[in-house]
Design goal:
By secondary structure, this protein is an alpha/beta fold. Helix content is about 35%, strand content about 15%.
């Protein structure tokens, strides 16, 4: 069958990863819960808000890298809390300095504190500067297919449209725009923000996303470590279902057993 999907490795900046679940490191009760949840998730890439988390810039304070060592995890510095391109670029350069020349970053430039919606104009400005500066840029964006296309054309290695607003847990609010982005994109598409539970992650993967990034859905669960494990399985199930190809939807019933040759 010509429409059979074959699996391909999940690759970013020349590196291949087994897990398609990326997780954030904020909002947990303490460092130990952070460590346990991320271990349970099976994630290999963990994202860190450089402006809010100590990864060496504050000597004498607890360092996240002590519980999530870079030799075990790929650290993905992000620019959470930045509201213009200049701030975001400065934050990425600081992260590269702290992480010994690490070029893989997650760019997000926010529009306001109420919605945490991306400011796509400032995001595009920052992306252009960072790409020219040698960064491998994964970029948080709106679910606008045109902006997603422009960010990929600017040299971003992955586009990360929101499913819903950050921290809302609303799931995929606009699957139609996401489907257009998936069909058009020449770079990996990862859902970022808005996931609330395992089924949301599975749906994103069933649609064809390369991976899913989440934080609040795990950290704000009543049992974060258990939810982290649930998300690990959800991502795997969604990817397998995408590769398998779902049955067509029908309006009326169709018998599971053949009707021909029935004994009368």
């Amino acid at each position: 069958m010509s429409n059979v999907r074959s699996d391909k490795p999940f690759t970013l900046a020349g590196r291949t990863f087994q897990s398609r679940l990326l997780v954030g490191t904020g909002k947990y009760r303490d460092m130990e819960e952070t460590r346990l949840a991320i271990e349970a998730s099976g994630a290999e890439i963990v994202t860190v808000a450089v402006r809010r988390t100590n990864i060496g810039q504050n000597p004498g304070e607890p360092n996240l890298l002590d519980v999530l060592p870079p030799d075990r995890y790929t650290i993905l510095p992000n620019t959470a809390g930045c509201y213009d391109a200049i701030e975001a670029v400065r934050t990425c350069r600081l992260a590269r300095e702290l992480l010994d020349g690490h070029n893989l970053v997650k760019l997000e430039v926010l529009a306001d504190q109420k919605t945490l919606f991306p400011n796509v104009i400032e995001t595009l400005k920052a992306a252009e500067v960072l790409v020219k500066d040698g960064f491998d840029v994964m970029v948080y964006t709106s679910d606008d297919p045109i902006i997603a296309r422009q960010l990929a054309e600017a040299g971003c290695i992955a586009v990360m449209p929101l499913a819903g607003l950050i921290g809302t847990g609303l799931g995929i609010c606009n699957p139609y725009n996401l489907q257009i982005i998936l069909e058009e994109s020449k770079v990996p598409v990862l859902v970022d923000a808005g996931v609330g539970t395992a089924s949301d992650a599975t749906i994103a993967m069933e649609m064809g996303c390369e991976a899913v990034l989440m934080n609040s859905a795990i950290a704000h669960a009543q049992q974060p470590v258990l939810m982290a494990e649930a998300m690990k399985h959800a991502i795997v199930a969604g990817r397998m279902a995408y590769l398998a190809g779902r049955m067509p939807k029908k309006l009326y019933a169709s018998a599971s057993s053949p009707l021909e040759g029935l004994i009368k």
